[in-house]
User: What shape does this take?
Amino acid sequence: MKRLFDFFASLVALLTLLPVLLVLYVIIAIKMGIPVFFVQARPGMQGNIFKMVKFRSMTEAKGTDGELLPDAQRLPAFGQMLRATSLDELPELWNVLKGEMSLVGPRPLLIEYLDKYTPEQARRHEVRPGVTGWAQVNGRNALSWQDKFALDTWYVDNRTFWLDIKILFMTVKQIFKRDNISQDGHVTMEKFKGSE
Assistant: This one.
């Protein structure tokens, strides 16, 4: 039932939001250039790697040494707006349609974190990663990594169709509130270095 809901809901959303996606594509191309999409390999269900697609929110600005500037210096006001409204996440509906992600589940994190999880934390990969999730509606990036993983595994153990619906409604509410977009002192969150 969850997969059927994900498929049809993401298909309807993509078709309905097509004009918005096209407008965002053009604006991002004008303001930040090409490529418009940020594509990155992420671990999905059972740790299987897939390519997650988002709208790009940071520039490719480089320093005199030719290296990319720190994230905070590459995030323009328009990119901040994309993140605050979660519009940068809309292309992930394509990943949901393909079955690589779900509308609701633990957020797909970096591949480099895989060998840093405890066995309990690694259980977040027992389900498909989500566009939104239980941790996102209960603190998002203001949470500590330990709290975030605890919420992820709670979702794995308690997931139901109706919980997913509740999380989707809570997500819409949170988007309008624009709370907990980033951790203090970071563009999003500090990197996960493993549990002590």
